Input
Amino acid sequence: MPKVLIVDDDMDWVKVLAIRLRQGGFEVVAATDAYQGVALVHKENPDCIVLDISMPAGGGITTLRNIRMTLHGQMLPVIVVSGVGDPETRRALQEAGARVFLSKPCKAEDVLEAIRKALEGAGAA
Amino acid sequence: MRKKISERLLSHWLSMFLFLMLVVLLIFNTVSYLTIRQYNGAAGERNRGHRILAALEGSLGGLLAMQSAVRGFVITKDPSYMDGLTQIETGIAQDLETAASLVILPLSKQRYETLQRLAAQEIEFQKQVLAFYERQGPEAAEDLIETGRGESLTDQIQELVIGWRLDQEKFIAAADSRVRRVATRALVFLGVGTALAACLLVAGGLTFRHEMAVHEKIERELARLAGIVSFSDDAIISESVEGKILTWNRGAQQIYGFTAEEVIGRHISYLVPVTHQKESKEILERVGRGEHLRHFETKRMTKDGRVIDVSLTASPLYGRRGRVVGISAISHDITEHKRMEEEVRQAIAIKSRFISIASHELRSPLTAMREGIALVVEGLQGPVTQGQKDLLDVALRNIDRLSRLSTDILNFQKIESGQLRLVRTWHHLGEIVDDVITTVRPVADEKKLSLTVDVAKDLPRVVCDKDKVTQVLMNLVTNSLKFTPAGSVHIEARKDADALHVSVRDSGPGIPVRDMPRLFQSFQQFGAASEKEGSGLGLFIAKQIILAHGGRIWAESQAGKGSVFHFTLPLQSLL
Output
């Protein structure tokens, strides 16, 4: 079962998203801040990351860069889900290796769909 | 300064007239002097002529009287004839002397000498007659008178005097005519001169009056300007090219706190805070070179050390030869204005931040809420009754509505603060239409509306922000579906001359004419109260997005026959 790591400080959202993803056939682990997120990448070896941009203790960009520095995190597909969508932040995230962007409010099904697509791509590669 | 201008203007014409008057007077005086001299000369000549004539007549008369007296005495022997003889002789001598003192011309001198000689001979002859009478008796004396040369002498004298007198009279007549001529000329000259002088006086007077009027006007104008300068609330300062303060108005005193006495003569840098000294020096140099400075915002320091914001307008003052001789500086205190501007700026920034935060913070909880309820509705957490499901659907619909509202407000804030940025790439319009149709199809089906699409086959790709254009089309289609109770909604896309043209046509009730002008304005809601569930920003945002793409958006409507919304996307859009 593919493992998804959700890094988001909105606990309620994490909760409902986790239910949806589990129902969709994924194993889910969640972190509510950047440090925890980086630690879990190392510990849990997830197959995909769903990342929020605005979080306490380091923004999404910093988190992503840190994840990219871990051995396992180098090639991980990352889906960014956030309310912030200005082009500058997008460009910076793209440079750091984010592949898919979803703006809040989005449906959990959209996230599920994006994860499936990302994993298919990774599998093909 | 004031005096100079008025003096210059006043003297220009007037001095010319004064100079002309002076010249005319000089000529007049010279000619008058010459005329009087001429007149005097001529009159003197005439007078001399008359006096010579009188002397000649006198001497001739004397000689004839002497001759008669001697003759009378000899014939009658009456001694009384001899009474005035000595006196007559003295008279003749006196007349001759007078004539001698008057004659000038060589001919007259010659005649005089002859006359003198003849008169002496005549007198000698008469004395000889008297001597004969004494020595040889009256007969001998009578004989001498008869035979002597007395008669011929008298004739000679008479002839001489008559000839001379004729000449003298001619001379007098000539002198007379000269006197008359000079007098006439003098009269004419006097008349012309007086007339000329009068003309000049009148012209001079008129010029003077005109110049006085101009002068007065200038004075009034200057007084008015001085009034404006002195009562202006702006600081109006004039400086030398080097920056020395020359004048200081009341506005300057109000703004800077210094009185005129305190600053006149000081350098303008006295009013400039340390941080702006260099800039002030540059301004001085630039204006000194003839540049103008308009509404330049800078800082100045007041007497009590406050640093104030001023808007400075500085211009060069030119001298008569076109050289910059000074600088005028008008400064307007904008401290308060700046403060208010800053407050407004801050207020706008706070509002923007508030809207931004509020919308973002609204969105996250909405997402979680929606997802949680959706999980329940789908029965993933256990069975749900139809009644529960209906109520949860109500909740979901309202969450979607709140979500749309927050999106609209966020978009509006972006547009208002100029942050609407397009991510432009090449797209097929057909794909965008398909996306929208897929999303709204369930709504149309639910309302049993016919939703049809007609996208031209060979549409070229267009440069646009896909998300934003989707948002516009979605807005138009959702509106049509919302306001159309029954019938159809038709989407059409085709290529115009230089743009792609999309239209959304519905068979709804149409838009009242009075609502048409406000259609694309912000916070406008239309339709019945029950239909007013949006933010009233949808069409406004759509318009801004299309305008940002360089396209057009408009609507056509006929009451009872439905509405058509159009927008275009230019094909020649710059990336």
User: Anything to note?
Assistant: Residues 17 and 108 of chain A are 6 Å apart (CA to CA). The beta strands of chain A are 3-7, 27-31, 48-51, 78-82, 100-103. The mean pLDDT of chain A is 81.
